[in-house]
Amino acid sequence: MISFVAEPTINQRLDIWLNGKFPDKSRSHVQKLIADGFVTVNGEHVKASHKLTGGEVVNVEEIAAVDVDYLPENLPLDILHEDADIIVVNKARGMTVHPAETVKSGTLVNALLYHCKDLSGINGVKRPGIVHRLDKDTSGVMVVAKTDLAHVRLAEQIKNKIATRTYLAIVHGVIADNCGLITGAIGRDKSDRKKMAIVPDGKSAVTEFKVLERFDNFTFVECKLQTGRTHQIRVHMTAIGHPLLGDTKYTARKNPFDIRGQALHSHTLTLIHPTTGDLMKFTAPLPDDMKNILNRLVPSS
């Protein structure tokens, strides 16, 4: 841990001030450290925009550099649609979206860089073209921007809930209600920064669910996101007592099936094409691992 004491006469945002202490790091990297809970001010977690007034004790638990080669790799890529502005792919379960400190190759970005040389640069060299993401162990449809204009317009659609996403999941337990709405603000888990949780100071999150089929001890559900928080479906389904099958991060329940990671699939994505204005809907078929599980489950009587 590194500790600093803010200068007595300071009147500055935390992220800007801290970036000055680590000039070799990008401001976005510092902002992510703050958002991920690695920075405290007088022992409290605050936002990047928090104003320092002088004399505060700022502790930084981690300020690791991400030294990654963003190289093209000839990896399998399931392309559902491609034109001059966007690429829509069906991401495989187990594939990380972009390189990071612990995953330096084999990612979707590495595959995209091999396939396409003109991805948008809005997120810089570390996340070219990435408008939204899926967890490593979540499969399914996602859109990637090839131009900066497409990136900006797609990001606005996601932010304003114009672009819609539907997921399919297999969860533990038999859900009694045919449909429901799960609310609960999501933020970093106070006791485990690698997990998310429903917390009082989190960001608002809303998930709609609909039961598709009930089985003995399991339920097949459709989930629609009204917001797009990290691990949202995983956290919300756990909160109502029905964690996702295979989700070792959020449940200790036994997984008797051959699936690596949570049984969660991004099934459909609807958006307005950023250039033509056409309404488009993309569907990624249910992967074989989830199909095989559903075929083995016994329907609830």
Provide an overview of this structure.
The longest helix is centred in the middle third of the chain and has 12 residues, at 148-159. The chain folds into 3 domains: 2-60, Structural Genomics Hypothetical 15.5 Kd Protein In mrcA-pckA Intergenic Region, Chain A (Roll); 68-160, Pseudouridine synthase (2-Layer Sandwich); 161-284, Pseudouridine synthase, CATH 3.30.2350. It contains 6 helices and 16 strands. The strands form 4 sheets. Strands 6, 7, 8, 9, 10, 13, 14, 15 and 16 form a 9-stranded mixed beta sheet that branches. Helix 1 packs across helix 2. Helix content is 18%, strand content 28%. It is globular. It has helices at 14-21, 27-35, 108-115, 148-159, 232-239, 288-296; strands spanning 2-5, 12-13, 39-41, 51-52, 57-60, 79-82, 86-91, 139-145, 164-172, 179-183, 186-188, 196-198, 206-215, 218-225, 264-272, 279-283. Mean pLDDT is 89; it is low at 64-68. It has 301 residues and is α+β, with helices and mostly antiparallel strands.
